[in-house]
Design a protein that fits this description.
GO terms for molecular function: glycosyltransferase activity. Residues 1-23 are annotated as: Disordered. The protein has a domain at 82-306: Spore Coat Polysaccharide Biosynthesis Protein SpsA, Chain A, CATH 3.90.550. It is built from 13 helices and 13 strands. The chain has helices at 3-7, 11-16, 30-48, 62-69, 82-96, 120-127, 167-181, 202-210, 255-263, 266-274, 285-297, 329-337, 378-383; strands at 106-113, 134-140, 186-193, 197-198, 215-218, 252-254, 302-304, 308-309, 340-344, 352-356, 358-359, 362-363, 369-370. A four-stranded mixed sheet has the order 2-1-3-6, sandwiched between helices. Strands 4-13-8 form a three-stranded mixed sheet. Strands 5-7 form a two-stranded parallel ribbon. Strand 1, helix 6 and strand 2 form a beta-alpha-beta unit. Helix 5 packs antiparallel against helix 9 and helix 7 crosses helix 9.
């Protein structure tokens, strides 16, 4: 058939064609209207209540949110309270001002103990011949100590009751610092427990601490339930969750940082009110207060690791304790040889990190002291103390 014949129609063909049907009215796309309405509501909400951080910009990546920043209203800076301004000024000047230079710098050994110190004879051997280079302070929270060494007689300070995990533990630390700071020659302040022992000679520890200007405070970010999970939103606005840190209680701090700890009231008050054990988040004040404080006010001035070794490898609420049978030359040698700080997060991922212990830019053994040792281990510790020779 020819193409021309295909398109040619007669009048008969035209009359045979049915009339065109009239189309009904188009249905309104309701789902589109609902979607657009929701988007408009979301945009109005974002306009009226912009997020505190653009990193969470409307649940999208920051690159997607960038166009919105141009027309969103400028987020005004939060007006600080009088206490925040006072705290900022005091800490700024403390960190900037020169510290007095002592002609006879000493280490303050601050013992936080419920009662007697079972290793006084070991400490006596450690301190022998170094009179005038150290000071001793004892905070006994339960009973007056019975001393086995004359070096510790009369070294008790006024003490108050201490409850594990509560702010009273931090109060005791501050009480020790205040008493030790009265001696202008004390330049480094070491917090110790009744179960702590020295790992090196006095000269080694003295030169290690006096030879650097950083404080040894353990500080790391743990996203798990025993880290950031203990944070309370009631600490806002002064302390945000991103600033919340965790670390071991046992510190060694410079005189400058000791003064800073005593000067702080703003952040201390937040921990006093909102960091308590067995209250939902089970927050342990002495594990979080100092790490969080220094992470916020002077993160570059701390080591982020403690010079006191504690073995948490058993994964329990309390660290491993060493009995007499455990204390051998090999054990002590292994602890003193550790040059990396071990950490594991408390979340399901159990992320392990090993960080080298740096002293003035050089990798050095991490630990000067160790805990926890049972009193029965004294004789073995005295027997193997010869390993501390350097």
């Amino acid at each position: 058939m020819k193409a021309s014949q295909v398109w040619q129609r007669g009048s008969k063909d035209m009359t045979a064609m049915p009339p065109p049907r009239q189309r009904g009215a188009a249905k309104k796309p309701m789902w589109i209207i609902v979607l657009l309405s929701l988007v408009c509501v979301a945009l109005i909400g974002a306009y009226a209540y912009p997020p505190r951080r653009y990193s969470a910009c409307y649940f999208f990546a920051s690159s997607v949110c960038t166009p919105f920043k141009d027309w969103l209203p400028t987020v005004t800076r939060r007006e600080r309270t009088d206490e925040e301004i006072v705290s900022s000024v005091v800490m700024r000047d403390l960190l900037a001002m020169p510290m007095p230079v002592s002609k006879n710098p000493k280490i303050a050994l601050m013992f936080l103990t419920p009662g007697s110190l079972p290793f006084e004879k070991l400490w006596e051997k450690f301190l022998q011949g170094h009179e005038g280079r150290y000071s001793i302070y004892i905070h006994a929270s339960r009973e007056r100590p019975v001393h086995s060494s004359s070096l510790f007689v009369g070294r008790e300070i006024h003490s108050e009751k201490v409850v594990w995990g509560r702010i009273s533990m931090v109060d005791a630390e501050k009480r020790l610092l205040a008493n030790a700071l009265e001696d202008v020659d004390n330049q480094f302040f070491v917090l110790l427990s009744d179960s702590c022992v020295p790992l090196h000679t006095f000269d080694y520890i003295y030169n290690f601490l006096m030879g650097t200007n950083v404080s040894f405070i353990d500080c790391f970010l743990d996203p798990g339930p025993h880290g950031s999970g203990r944070y309370s939103v009631e600490m806002l606005p002064e302390i945000e969750q991103r600033d919340f840190r965790k670390g071991a209680q046992w510190f060694a701090v410079t005189r400058r940082h000791a003064l800073l700890i005593l000067a702080d009231h703003l952040y201390y008050n937040k921990f006093e009110l909102y960091c308590k054990p067995a209250e939902g988040r089970n927050c342990i004040a002495d594990e979080h207060y100092l790490p969080t404080l220094f992470n916020m006010v002077d993160p570059g001035g701390i080591s982020n690791w403690s010079v006191t070794h504690v073995d948490w490898s058993e994964g329990k609420w309390h660290p491993r304790s060493y009995r007499a049978i455990d204390v051998t030359y090999a054990l002590l040698k292994n602890i003193t040889a550790i040059k990396e700080n071990f950490r594991i997060t408390s979340d399901d991922k159990k992320v392990v990190t090993m960080t080298p212990c740096m002293w003035n830019g050089t990798k050095r053994p991490c630990y000067l002291f160790a805990r926890k040792f049972y009193p029965e281990a004294l004789n073995n510790l005295l027997k193997h103390s010869s390993y501390t020779s350097t």
